[in-house]
Specification:
The complex is a heterodimer of chains A (204) and B (984).
Chain A: H1 4-22, H2 26-42, H3 46-63, H4 69-89, H5 96-127, H6 133-149, H7 151-156, H8 159-195
Chain B: H1 2-26, E1 37-43, E2 51-57, E3 65-75, E4 78-86, E5 98-103, E6 106-109, E7 129-130, H2 137-140, E8 148-154, H3 155-160, E9 163-169, E10 172-179, E11 186-190, E12 197-205, E13 217-219, E14 232-237, E15 242-247, E16 256-265, H4 269-291, E17 307-313, E18 323-327, E19 332-335, E20 340-343, E21 352-360, E22 365-367, E23 374-376, E24 388-392, E25 400-405, E26 409-417, E27 424-432, E28 440-448, E29 454-460, E30 466-470, E31 477-486, E32 496-503, E33 508-516, E34 519-520, E35 525-532, E36 539-545, E37 550-554, E38 560-564, E39 567-569, E40 574-577, E41 580-585, E42 592-596, H5 599-620, H6 625-647, H7 649-656, H8 660-676, E43 678-685, E44 691-693, H9 709-713, H10 735-756, H11 767-770, H12 772-782, E45 786-789, H13 798-816, E46 821-825, H14 830-844, E47 856-858, H15 863-877, E48 881-885, H16 891-902, E49 905-910, H17 916-922, E50 925-928, H18 930-940, H19 943-971, H20 976-979
Parallel strand pairs in B: 4-7, 14-23, 45-46, 45-48, 46-47, 48-49, 49-50
Antiparallel strand pairs in B: 1-2, 2-5, 3-4, 3-12, 6-11, 8-11, 8-38, 9-10, 10-40, 12-13, 14-15, 15-18, 16-17, 16-21, 19-20, 21-22, 24-25, 25-37, 26-27, 27-30, 28-29, 28-31, 31-32, 32-33, 33-34, 35-36, 35-43, 39-40, 41-42, 43-44
Classes of the chains: A mainly alpha (204), B alpha+beta (984).
Chain lengths: 204, 984
Amino acid sequence: MKRQIPLAIVITLGFLFVIHTFVPHKISQDFYDWFQTWIKAISPFAVFLGVMSLFNVHRTKISRRVPNWQYSVITLIGLFFTAFAGFMWGTQEGTPYMWLFTNVQMPMSATMFSLLAFYIASAAYKAFRARSAEATVLLVAAIIVMLGQVSLGAAITKWIPETSRWILNVPNLAAKRAIMIGVGLGMTATSLKILLGIERTYLG
Amino acid sequence: MEFNHLKTGKLLFLMVFTLLITLSFAAEEDYSNYIVENLQVNDIPNDDGGGLVLSWKPLPKERRIIEYRIYRGVSPDTLFFHGKVDVNVKTGVSGDELFYYDSGYNMFVNLQSPGKLKKEEQQSPESPLFLSYPRDITVSGPRLKNYRILGVIPEKDFYYRNTKVEIEEDDETEVYAGYKLRHFKYLLKKLIADKEYFYTVLAVTESRKFMPHAKIVSGIPRDDSPEAAKEFFPVFVKDKKILKFEWTRAIFTTDHSNHNLYLIHKDDLETFNDFVQEQINLEELSITAKEDSLLEIPEAKYTNPAKLIFTRYSGYPYTANNTVSIPIKDNLIADEENEIEVEIDPTEMTDYRFVFSFADWNGFETFSEVKKAKEIYSADLPKLPAEWKVTDRADDKGDYNTISWGKPSVLLTNTSYLNEEKTKLLVNYDVYTNKNYKTIKNVYFQVYDMHGNMIDEINEFYQDKKIKIKLPHEMNEITFKMWIKANGYSGKDQLFTQKLIYDENSKSMQPGKLYLDNEEVNRFSYSIYKRNYSNEEWRLSKSTMGSQRELFDNIAYELDHFKSVSKFDLEKKLFLVSPTFSIRMDDKLENSIVANLYPSEQKKSIENYQKEIEKYEAQKDTASAEEIAKFDRYIEHYQNQLKIAQENPILKTAAEINGKKARLKYLEKARKIGSRSFEYKIVKSDGKGIFTESEVYQAEKIGNLPFTKKTRNSFAGLGKNHFYPLPNWFQSNKFATLIATLIFGYLVFTMIQKAKKGKDLYIRPIAGISEIDNAIGRATEMGRPILYVPGLSGIGDVATLAGLSLLGRVAKKAAEYDTRILVPVRDYIVLPIAQEIVKEAHYEAGRPDTYDNNSVFFITTSQFAFVAGVNGIMIREKTATNFYMGMFWAEALLMTETGSMTGAIQISGTDAVTQIPFFITTCDYTLIGEELYAASAYLAKEPLQLGTLKAVDYLKFIIIIFVIGGTILSTFHATFLINSFPEK
C-alpha cells in the first residue's frame, strides 16, 4: 500500500493534467487553479523538512566534534538569528533581516557569481586547445564569434560580424534545436513512463 | 592555539559590540528635524466629492527616510493607517512637494487586517495613531457610516452563505443579507462628500524608526463640476442632412450622469456665455456657502438659451460611446424618448453653434468649447468593410468573442540597410488578418522607383515578416504595391500602396502612410462597441488602428458581487447588504429585473409595489400640479416594476422552483446569460467627427447554444444579435500534438510488447552511461565518497525526476560496494524523495545498516550559497566521483571546475542547452539532453524501459522525416505541411 497509493495518485493526477493540456474549458482551468492553490498551501510545510535536515547534519557534526565543527556552529547561529530577525522585526526594508540580506547574503552571492568569470576563462582554455581537428574548428569558431560581438571584429573586416551571426544563427541554432527536440521527446517519454507506472524509482 | 584565537576573536567582538551599543544609547537624537512639515489637504477638482489630495514637504535625503506613512480618521484623536509612500533611501525625493491622492475605493477591512484595535508601532499610549481598521466588528462596524463602503463578495458566498437579518426601521421591517467578514473578499471604503477627514503623516527612517507625526490637519471633499471635454467635433453631412458629433473622453468619470449636446443660434451666443459664467460663479458660491452658513446664494439671472438636442446616460463604470449621429427630418431634431424637439434649418447651418457637456449626479454641468459644424458630404465619410462577423472564439474557456472584419492587410513597419552602398534593404512588414482568412498563402510586393519603374518583385510564400530588396542605386524614395492571397481569396481587389522615404535623422528609409485604393488606412481607427442585456448604454470594447482586421473581446467570468454596506449586526457579527440583485434589464432597456435572495421577500415586493402605487394615487388628491406630475412618474415606475415582478418569465420560472438552492442557481445562470451576452457594432472614425457607424451585427443563423428553449425565450435575440461566449472542450491548435502523443503511445506499447517477447532491441551505446559503474568502482577502490547532485530545480522539473531515477541506480551500486554517497539538495521538496530513494537503494542492496539519513541533506535554496556548500564538500571530503544529473544554471561551471581541480572523475547530464558546453569542457563524461532521460532505462535493461527508449528513437525518425519534407516542400512554395502544424 505504501507504494500503491502514491502511484495511484500520480497516475490519476498525471492523466488529469494531460487532459487539462488539451481541454481549455472553464472546468479544466478551474481544476488547475484549484490544484495550484493546494500546491502553494502544501509546499511551505516542506521548508521544515529542509530546516530539520540542515539542523540534524550540523548538530551531528558539532556533537561528534568532527574536523572544522566550528563552521557548523556559525551555520546554525546564522540560521537561527536570520529566522529570529525575520519573525521579530519583519522582513521590510530597514529591518535587521533586510540588513543581513543586503549586507551579508547579497555580497557573498555576488562574490561566488563573479568567480564565474575566472572559471569560464579556465574552461575556455581547456576547450580551445587545438589538440585535434574538431578542437581547432571550435577554436576558430570561438574566435570569430567573440570578435563578432565587439567593435574590433567589424574594424578588421565586415565579414567577421556576419560570419559570427551566421555561426550563431545556423549551425549553433540547428544543434540547439536538435538537442531541444531530443529533450522534448525525452521529457515526454519520462512523463509517460511515470504515468504508466513503468518508472517508479522516484517513489523510493 | 586555534582555540586561543577563537577566544580572542570572541572577546574582541564582544568589546566592539558593547562599545557600539553604548555609543548608540549615549547619542541622543533630536527627532524634531524628522517631523514632516507643510502638510496640507485639498479637495480634488472635477470629481464626485470622494477625493482629497495630501501634500507635504519631503525630508532631505540625509535623513535617510524609506517611507512616509499616512493616517486618516474622522476625528483628530483616532487616526488609522491608510497608506504609505515608499522612498528610495539613496536618492530621496527630488521635488519640493510630495503628493498622495486619497481618492476612489481603497481597503477598509479584509482578512489580513489586524484582529483587534492596535496602536501603531513605537507609539506612546497617548498617540492617536493606530494600525489599519481591525477585523473586530465592534470597532469597524460603527465606522461604516464614516465612508461609502463597498463589499466585494465571492459569487458562491453571496448566494449561498448569507443569513437573513430583519431590522425594524421607521415602523417597517427591512430585510438584509448578513455576511461574516470571512465571506467578503474585502470591504472597500471611499470618502463621503462634505464630511471632514483628519490626516497626519510620519516618516520612517532606514532603521525603521517611526518619527513623530506631523501636525494633524483636516480637509473636506467637495462634489464639483466635471472636467470639460478637451476636444469636440461637430460635423454636418450636407447631402444626408445628418449631424455627427465626436468628443474626447474625460479622465474622471465616476459621477458622470449624462452626456449632452446643445444647439445654439449664433444670436444667443453672448447669453450662453453669460449663462456659463454665471453657473461657474454659482458653483463656487455654493461650495463657499457650505463653509459659511451666512453667505446667501443669489438667484440665477440667466436661463440656458442652448437647446438640448441629445442626451444619454454616461454609462459609468464602462467607457461610453463618444460619437453620435443625429438626423434632421423636416427641419426638426426629434427624440421622443427624451422629449426633444428642436427646430433647425439645415440650409443655414452657419447660423448654428454646437456645444457638448458632461453632467454629473449633483446637477453640475461643464460645457466644451462652442463650435460651428464642419460641412462635408457623405462621400467624405469612411467606408465600413462590406463583411464583418461576430463569432465565439475557438479554443478558450468561454471568455472571448471574436469580431472580425474586412480582408487581410499588409503594412511596412521598418527598414534597415544591409550594405554600405545602401542598395540592399531589409524591410519588415506586418500582415493583419482574421479567422475568415486564417491561412495567408502569399504576400506579393512590387517595388517602384520615383518614376514608376518596377525595380523588384517579391512573392512571400512563407511570411517571416521581412523581405530583402535590391535597389539599382541609392534611392530617397520607393513605392511598394502590395496584395495578399489567402484561402479562397485572390487579393487583387485590395491593392495596398506605401512609400519608403529616406529620413536624414535616422539615416534610414522610413515607412510612409499606407493607402488602400485612395483611402489612407490608418487615418481611421475601428472602435468596437458592445452592449449586454444588463445595460442600456453601449460600452467600448477596444479601439484598433485601421489596418487591424480582428479583435478578441474579453468577457471575463464574474467572480464577485459588489454590494454597498452601511449596516451591521453586532450580536451576530454580520455585515449587512441588500438581498436584491439585478438579473438583466427588460427588453425595452428601461427597467431592471431585480431578484431577491429570499423567495418570501420576492413575493413581498409585489405587495410593496402595490402599496406604493396606492400611496401616490392617494396623495395626488391633495397635491399641486407639479407634484401630481412627479407622483405620476413614481406611479409609472412602480407599475412597471409590478408588471416585471408578476410577468417576467425569469422571475416567474424562479418562483415555481421549490428548492432554495435550485432557485438561486437558476437566477445565477440567468444573470450570467444577461451580463455575458453581448451585441456589437463597429464605428470607423478619424477621431474628429468624420465617422461611420455600422448597424448592430445580426448572425445569419442561430448557432448551437447550451440553453433550454425556455431560457432562450427569456432573452430575445440570444444567438442572433447577442453573443454568449462558449467554453470549448478541445484545443484545436493542439490537434497535431494529440496525434503525435497517440502515435508515441502506440509506439511505446508496440516496442514494450516486442521487448517482452524477447526481441533484441538495439540501443546505441552511450559512453557516459557505461562509465557509471567504473566511476563508482573507482570511488570504492580509493575509499572516498561519491557526490551526487540531482540538479537545482524542483520536483516539477522532469530533469529532476530523471536525475532522481538515476540516483536510485547509483545509490544501489554504491551500497553494494559499501561506498558512501553524499547527496546535497537545494529544493526541500526533493529532499525527502531523495532520502527515500537512497534508503530504498540500501535496502535493495541488502545493506540497510549502511544507510545514513544525514548523507542526503539540504543545504540552502540560494543558488550560489548552494554552490559554495557543494564545493566545500568536494574539497573537504575529497570525493572520488561526482555526478551532476538534472537541471543546472550558472552554478554548473563553478561546481564542475572545482570537481575537476580536486581530481574527481565527473559524469554530468542535463537538458539545459546553455550549460552543456561547460559540462563537456570540465567533466569526463556528459549525457547530452535526452541521454539524461535515457540513462535510467539503459541501466535498468528491463523490457518496459527499453521499449520506451526505442519508441523515442522511432518518433525522432518520424520528426526528422517531417522536418526534411517540410523543408523541401517549402522550398518549392508548398507551405501546406508547415501550416498544418501550430506555431506554438
